[in-house]
Design brief:
By secondary structure, this protein is α/β, with parallel strands linked by helices. It is built from 18 helices and eleven strands. The two termini are 42 Å apart.
Amino acid sequence: MRNKEELIRRILNRGVEEIIEKESLTKKLDSGKKLRVKFGIDPTKPDIHLGHTVPLLKLREFQELGHKAVLIIGDFTAQIGDPSGQSAERKPLTEKEVKMNMKHYLEQAGKVIDIKKAEVRYNSEWHKKEGLMSMLTMARAASIQQVMKRREFKERINAGGDITLLEFLYPLFQGYDSVKIKSDVEIGGTDQKFNLLMGRRVQRHFGVPEQDIITVPLIEGTDGIRKMSKSFGNYIGIAEAPNDIFSKVMSVPDALLAKYFENLTETKPTSNDPYQSKMLLGETIVRMYHGQKAAEKAKENFVKTFSKKEMPDEIEIKTVSSDALSSGTTAMLVAIGAAKSNSEARRLIDQGAVKVDGRTVSDPNEKRKDGEVLKVGKHRFFKLRKK
């Protein structure tokens, strides 16, 4: 257990991009007052991934210091879609889809924070029940001009795109969540800054003390380019099988290793060798979410499957459709450029030259899965990523 001073330093400095207002938050932490610390997540997909764990780990630090973690499950706002970082409107979700997505959310979040000590709220609790008058009152908290300052909206309009009225309202809905739960602090990624600041404005509008804000870094996904996202298919889900997590970590570009260690773990690399660092990172992350035995087994399985000599520092990622995954190994080899024709693909399979996680593929019609690593011949590796 870390002492109070160490935890406060960690909260204010490690894995933090910006604090608004830092002086205010520092005074609150020093005062010993029990704070209500908010983090919200929309269940747009069923998985919580490593990108989500950055703010969740920060939330856990507040818990360790004795503050109340308030986890908002955006079952209402998920049906609208957060426009943060979006160049087009998100696909609307039905209530049924949202319920399916959040079926295992608490179980996954509980791998990071202490769910039993947290306050878990669903924002449909107030957004669905309070009616139109509440929405009209909330809508007066900001002007069109203020919302139009949002970078994503400016870029979309300049590109000739449309913005729906619901997208305009989204940051107000998120801000109203802060009013309802009386948030003292809200945590979010850097892409959430506009929404978090709107929370302060909405609180002020309703006469509630304004929350302080902590923004944390966005983590790039396994492609090394875009932020880790369920939409981009470049994520590592914490509920995935240990072997899958380990192999995905091993495909992370070398340039991201320091960032992953700093923001996703409490471990520091012990070697300058990227391969050894990835092995440690993979073992650490699997241990965090599946335990020590699973971590050791995943590492052992990976070593058996790929020796250091044959494993490249970076595995080529091939983004494929669901139809391609289900079309069979022969068609897949052609689709990803591992074979020039179906006949060549079948010949490679017949020769035992195609492996998945160390297992030789013998059935040319065997369906492939998202996240699998195909080894073709002695030196070619391809990681499959579903669109």
